[in-house]
Write a structure and sequence with these properties.
By secondary structure, the protein is an alpha/beta fold. It is about 40% helix and about 15% strand. The chain is built from eleven helices and 13 strands. The protein has a seven-stranded parallel beta sheet, sandwiched between helices. Strands 7-10 form a two-stranded parallel ribbon. A two-stranded parallel ribbon has the order 8-13. Helix 1 runs parallel beside helix 2 and helix 7 (about 190-200) crosses helix 9. The chain starts with a strand and ends with a helix.
Length: about 325
């Protein structure tokens, strides 16, 4: 199968591309290698993919309509895994235009490419951030998510709505995956585990928001990739039992669906820090800060729908996952513990 992976130089895109190539798929990778975080890390990820049989890479911006139209016409993928986006809840307050360009205009170009080139399945990255002001835990796809608390979250909810319209109008099978705090080797430097590790090793205060009273459904990268691949392999189909009298947000009469993809085992942030301290053999200096705008105190994924659909079974404990991240970090940056 030929699969177009956008954001191929990113954290999840790189790991997914590795697994797809290993099982014999062709991967057409796309990334603009923007400087939101260290470009050399993105380049190092790409270097691991370059030269592998079945991999080709295109450096372009998904917001470039002409370039994306040409790419789709030339590559004719069987499926698309759309991961490219402007990430980060807090950065969306500083630079909202980047989110409009990448997450809305860019996603529109992905939908048009799929529509005009008979793509068999579009899987796209949504986010746990769409749950916004919801407080009932665990978060379920069947809940209403009309109250985002950041522009980033609003763009991801918009992606879900845009995808549904294409599923309805053009019978394009679309599946949205709401990712819950992904972490692991080759991760993103703007995320907590990376920042905490660097701060502890440098003996610098690490920022802990809401004074540590946070809970996250931390999900290890290998579990995420397994769930993504299983989802790609099972195109969305209409639900014959869906009713407009009691509309279920997770399903549709069209070939459209939305799934949570998380660990289903939330961890208190201070426990996360404690495990990291144990792995590094050093104590953290905590800078206890108030809650940041756009953030939420807790996330917890109900993954029963994804379990039922593709037998998704996350299996990595936070202790094992952090240990594996630390081993990678020390090897990549040449750190001696």
């Amino acid at each position: 199968m030929k699969i177009l992976v956008t954001g191929a130089a990113g954290f999840i895109g790189h790991a997914l591309s590795q697994r797809l190539l290993a099982r014999g798929d062709q991967v057409v990778g796309v990334d603009n290698l923007n400087d939101y975080y260290d470009v050399t890390l993105k380049e190092a990820r790409l270097k691991r993919l370059a030269g592998q049989p079945g991999f080709e890479f295109h450096r372009l911006d998904i917001a470039d309509r002409t370039a994306m139209t040409t790419l789709f016409a030339d590559s004719r993928p069987d499926a698309v895994m759309h991961l490219a986006a402007q990430a980060g809840v807090r950065y969306s307050i500083e630079n909202p235009a980047a989110y409009v360009d990448a997450n809305l205009v860019g996603f529109g170009n992905i939908l048009e490419g799929c529509r005009h080139n008979q793509v068999g399945h579009l899987v796209f990255a949504s986010s746990s951030s769409v749950y916004g002001a919801n407080t009932r835990l665990p978060f379920s796809e069947h809940q209403n998510v009309d109250h985002p608390v950041s522009l980033y979250a609003a763009t991801k909810k918009a992606n879900e709505l845009m995808a549904h319209s294409y599923a309805h109008l053009y019978e394009l099978p679309c599946t949205g995956l709401r990712f819950f705090t992904v972490y692991g080797p080759w991760g993103r430097p703007d995320m907590a585990l990376f920042k905490f590790t660097r701060g502890i090793l440098e003996d610098s205060p690490i920022p802990v928001f809401n004074r540590g009273q946070m809970v996250r459904d931390f999900t290890f990268i290998d579990d995420i990739v397994e769930g993504v691949i299983r989802t790609i392999d099972q195109p969305a189909a209409p639900d014959p039992d869906w009713s407009g009298d009691a509309p279920d947000p997770a399903r549709s009469y069209a070939p459209y669906r939305v799934f949570n993809i998380g660990n289903n085992a939330p961890v208190e942030l201070m426990r996360y820090v404690e495990v990291l301290e144990q792995c590094l053999g050093r104590k953290a200096r905590l800078d206890l800060l108030p809650m940041q705008d756009g953030d939420v105190p807790a996330t917890f994924a109900d993954v029963s729908e994804l379990v039922a659909a593709v037998d998704f079974q996350p299996a990595t404990s936070v202790e094992d996952g952090i240990s594996r991240f630390v081993a990678w970090y020390c090897d990549y940056y040449g750190v001696q513990l």
